[in-house]
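Hi all, posting the design record for the shared folder.

TITLE: backbone redesign
STEP: 1 of 1
STRUCTURE INPUT:
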């Protein structure tokens, strides 16, 4: 039921809020801090492999890094931290995170792919690492005692490549976002840094940034349906509804590191137990894809 302050001696609250509002947080996730820097890399042959200069091949590797073109589920599993960036006090570490975004990619033809997302995230005590689902928690701003709920979400969207870049859309809801990626290569690794431009109608600030690391040789061989991936990600958004934070209290920053697992069964047993408890429909959705 406690909340734990983060040591913010060197953190400027207004600077963090301004960075989030202006979309400057990609620097936290490893993204270039300015467009000029990205342009320099694009013109630097020693930092890019030939396929990175071909939009269709780069799109193909984006798909392979995010999922599996054979249609099998790819669990992207992570651990991280959930921070509150307040309007009138120091930032605060509220929870540890353990989560997974399970993704199935279906080729629907015409250069379009359906992304099926299923997300389940546990909030954990930042000191004991205890899973807090269903446990009491006291809101540090209002003092209200609440019950912790896991983060559950999902979507089904179409992803394609057009003149703007990689576009993700949901024709039913009107959602449309452009995914901006910068590919680079060095040593044994290929890397993509990116962010997602969300619709202006979405809550502000809401931004998503990520850096992915792949095997350079594997990325240059287009025979396999998937690429293994390690990643860091930062997501800036309003607080979870169950927290009942007052309007104007601040924003939440999710920061995590993880990897793309081979199959659902390889995820931690405690995590799977809680996921199936809170999302029993996942059993049917996963089907036989849960096994290697």
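Okay, here is what came back for every position:
SEQUENCE:
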């Amino acid at each position: 039921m406690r909340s734990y302050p983060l040591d913010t001696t060197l953190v400027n609250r207004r600077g963090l809020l301004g960075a989030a509002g202006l979309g400057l947080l990609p620097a936290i996730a490893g993204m270039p801090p300015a467009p000029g820097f990205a342009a320099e890399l694009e013109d630097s042959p020693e930092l890019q492999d030939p396929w990175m200069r071909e939009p269709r091949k780069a799109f193909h590797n984006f798909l392979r890094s995010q999922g599996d073109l054979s249609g099998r589920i790819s669990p992207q599993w992570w651990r991280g931290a959930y921070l509150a960036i307040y309007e009138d006090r120091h930032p605060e570490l509220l929870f540890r995170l353990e989560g997974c975004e399970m993704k199935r990619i279906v080729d629907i033809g015409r250069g379009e792919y359906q992304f099926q997302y299923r997300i389940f995230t546990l909030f954990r005590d930042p000191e004991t690492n205890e899973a807090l689902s269903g446990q009491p928690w006291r809101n540090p701003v209002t003092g209200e005692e609440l019950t912790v709920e896991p983060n559950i979400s999902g979507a089904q969207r179409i992803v394609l490549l057009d003149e703007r870049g990689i576009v993700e859309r949901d024709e039913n809801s009107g959602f449309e976002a452009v995914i901006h990626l910068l590919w680079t290569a060095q040593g044994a690794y290929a890397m993509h840094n990116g962010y997602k431009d969300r619709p202006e109608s979405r809550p502000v600030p809401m931004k998503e940034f990520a850096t992915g690391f792949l095997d350079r040789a594997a990325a240059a061989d287009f025979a396999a349906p998937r690429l293994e991936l390690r990643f860091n990600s930062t997501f800036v958004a309003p607080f979870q509804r169950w927290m009942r934070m007052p309007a104007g209290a601040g924003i939440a920053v999710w920061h995590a590191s993880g990897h793309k697992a081979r199959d659902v069964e390889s995820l931690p047993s405690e995590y799977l137990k809680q996921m199936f408890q809170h999302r029993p429909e996942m059993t049917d959705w996963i089907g036989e894809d849960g096994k290697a």
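COMMENT: Residues 124 and 130 are 5 Å apart (CA to CA).
Let me know if anyone wants the other runs.
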